[in-house]
Amino acid sequence: MTSSDVEDRLDRLTTRILVPLRTEKRVVKDDLDELCELVATARDEGLFRGSIEVRLAGKFWSIFCSMLAEADHARDPDPILNAAWRYQEELSRSFGPVF
Fold first, then answer.
1. C-alpha span between 58 and 69 (Å, rounded)
2. Are 26 and 20 in contact (CB under 8 A)?
3. At what angle do helices 29-44 and 78-95 cross, to 10 degrees?
4. Which of 9, 35, 59, 90 is the most buried (most CB within 10 A)?
5. pTM for the complete prediction?
6. Gap between the Cα atoms of 87 and 89, Å rounded
7. How far apart are CA 11 and CA 59, in angstroms?
8. Would you say residue 98 has pLDDT above 80?
9. What does the pLDDT look like over 19-72, one tens digit per residue?
10. CA 91, CA 61: separation in Å to the nearest integer?
């Protein structure tokens, strides 16, 4: 999988995740699962070794930041926060730091 393939999938998932998150304050579990799988696959294929384009790294992390921001405005923030921390764990495994 190339970084271009990853970015295309990430862009599609971003829309599928952020629209219901922003409009209904809900996380679609299947889309979150697919996003976490995308991060794990990219990691396993070595996309995160060495340098990665800042734009692509920013796209991965912006979803996490958006989830936290939307949780601040939700009546029940726990499901959003749980999803955000699950996704953050995948990102941390991919981007480090590794001790």
1. 16
2. yes
3. 10
4. 35
5. 0.89
6. 5
7. 8
8. no
9. 999 999 999 999 999 999 999 999 898 888 777 778 888 999 999 999 999 999
10. 8
When computed from its CA atoms, the radius of gyration of the chain, rounded to whole angstroms, is: 13
- By the 8 A CB rule, do 63 and 23 touch? no
Two structure tokens written together for 24: 């209904």
Q: Tokens representing 48?
A: 């995160």
Record the tokens describing residue 88, joined without a space. Answer: 């953050």
Taking residue 33's Cβ as centre, other Cβ atoms within 10 Å add up to 11
Rounded CA-CA distance 5/76 in Å is 35
> Residue 5 corresponds to which tokens in the numbers above?
């393939």
